[in-house]
Design brief:
about 400 residues, alpha/beta, Urease, subunit C, domain 1, TIM Barrel, 8-stranded mixed beta sheet, 8-stranded parallel beta sheet, 10 helices, 21 strands, disordered C terminus
């Protein structure tokens, strides 16, 4: 199908076009610009007074809308994907943690079986395994039964369960056995992210030298920065090679800390993530994680002891938060929600930009930065007047 989106402000995000057109054919963008007319025979959709941006890519999310991505029910993953497009998400990684090794394998198999385009929903790009090779001192809300010493045989089991769809693994690089796991994961094309870690500055630097290029929700569940021991946070801030996730929900990280992160690394190395829990996007809700109950209330998802258990935010929330609080420009917010995550996953040549040759994954935002329409591979999957049909 050939059609044109006309008259919108366009953030590619490499440039801003005040009023332009996007031409889409067979799920791909074929032309973009202010002087690009709709081709003969194209279906024209006027989107004046809206901003078109690349669809958001959430590389760290556990669920939302009442749906969990750590599940043995593949339909629950699909229902999440169909809900997520209402928040501007056009692709995502299913982030998995579990109460045990065996449960983790089950969740990996389920998510791997759903990877790919999902009719009427966001595309599942693969799986992010958060743990189990993490520090017991920095578990955060991860289940206590999930953590285990890094070892290559377990990694091989996770790789087999996920097929070829394990894209990212979060681990603590200071743990004995971690260097071997890092080497084996990178050899299989799995990106390694430092997280839930008590690593020192030196240990963080050694992991970066070994090829680690990601950091999981910076500032959270990491050894804090100290002037005499910068810790793993210092290593991440210093390295131009590491992409840092940040949860911009207004709860996990103070806006001033995000500003410092951006000044240190630039928006090209910061990825907005939600770390969304199953009740994210709802007014209230609860779920179980590792046998512990977590609840949503007053914009926070917490365990009974008050520990933050993921986020209540959605990707459009994160974009609005950094813009409204003056942390980032709209163009940089869009970049951190689309182009940076795409590049960090190795799919930056087909996703994360509104440019010829790219997948037609697009979100339309109104003046309040609310999502009004979402397209995935050229198919309109969300329209605000109709709303989400489930």
């Amino acid at each position: 199908m050939l059609y044109a989106l006309t008259g919108a402000r366009i953030l590619t995000p490499d440039e801003e076009i005040p009023a332009g057109n996007v031409i889409i054919e067979d799920g791909r963008i074929v032309a973009v610009g202010a002087d690009v007319p709709p081709p003969p025979g194209a279906r024209v959709q006027a989107v004046a007074n809206l901003t078109l941006a690349p669809g958001f890519i959430d590389t760290h999310v556990h669920g939302g809308g009442g749906f969990s991505l750590a599940t043995d029910d593949p339909e629950e993953v699909r229902r999440y994907a169909r809900w997520a497009v209402s928040k501007g998400v056009t692709s995502f990684l299913a982030t998995v943690c579990a109460a045990s090794h065996e449960e983790g394998l089950d969740f990996l198999r389920t998510a791997a079986g759903v990877v790919g385009p999902i009719g009427g929903g966001a595309e599942l790009l693969g799986v992010h395994l958060e743990g189990p090779f993490v520090s017991p001192q920095r578990l955060g809300a991860l289940p206590e039964g999930w953590a285990r010493p890094p070892n290559v045989p377990d990694l091989r089991a996770y790789l087999e369960a996920a097929g070829s769809h394990l894209r990212v693994i979060t681990l603590a690089p200071e743990l004995p056995g971690a260097p071997g796991v890092i080497e084996a994961a990178l050899a299989r094309g799995v990106a390694v992210s430092m997280g839930h870690s008590d690593a020192t500055y030196e240990e963080g630097g050694q992991a970066i030298a070994a090829g680690v290029r990601r950091a999981t929700h910076v500032f959270n569940a990491l050894r804090p920065f100290h002037q005499r021991e910068p810790g793993i946070v210092g290593a991440v801030l210093e390295s131009p090679d590491v992409t840092a996730e940040v949860i911009a929900d207004g709860v996990h990280v103070h806006p001033a800390a995000i500003q410092l992160l951006l000044k240190a690394k630039g928006p090209e190395r910061v990825a907005l993530v939600t770390d969304g829990a199953p009740p994210a996007g709802l007014s209230q809700g609860s779920f179980s994680i590792g046998g512990k109950q977590a609840r949503l209330g007053e914009g926070r998802v917490v365990l009974e002891d008050g520990t933050l258990a993921g986020s209540a935010a959605t990707m459009d929330d994160c974009v609005r938060n950094v813009v409204r609080r003056g942390v980032a420009t709209m163009a940089d917010a869009v970049r951190m929600a689309s182009a940076v995550p795409a590049a960090s996953l190795g799919c930056g040549e087909r996703k994360g930009r509104i440019a010829p040759g790219y997948d037609a994954d697009i979100v339309a935002l109104d003046e309040g930065l609310e999502v009004t329409m979402t397209w995935v591979r050229g198919e309109i999957v969300y329209f605000w007047r109709k709303g989400w049909q489930g």
